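1st attempt posting a full record on here, be nice pls
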Amino acid sequence: MRRMPVVVVLLLVLSLPASTAGAPASPAATGSPVAISGLKLTPDHFRVRAKRGPHHVLSGGARISFVLSEAAEVHLVVAAPPGCASEAKTAKIARACLPMTKIYGLFSVTGHAGRNTIFFSGKLRQRPLRPGTYRVGATPVAGRGATATFTIL
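the predicted structure (as tokens):
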């Protein structure tokens, strides 16, 4: 019997308490988690931002915007939408789908209370994402996250 490899990707974000010497209390210490809402990419279908041309015309990319209930660091993860990585083909398990999500990259931004907007060029580590559908997840430290879907043309 041939075994199929199973790959599990875990993303663990730890939050350390803030220093008590004059630093504001963290949301985890006050008991109120940071709320994130309104996560969206505008436009949600875009091309990867091109390099500067001879006339310095820039095109492509998108704005990621979200609303925070209070100031916090926000971790953004770009991943493939969940799908089937492989199918088990044994007599006992009839073609069961093994869910899998590939993480392409992550980055962090410091957000303030209210609406936050950052620019996303469609590149991670200076490498353009290939055309296709992706998902971005935004999670504030000591809070719950939100996701949005976008397509690279």
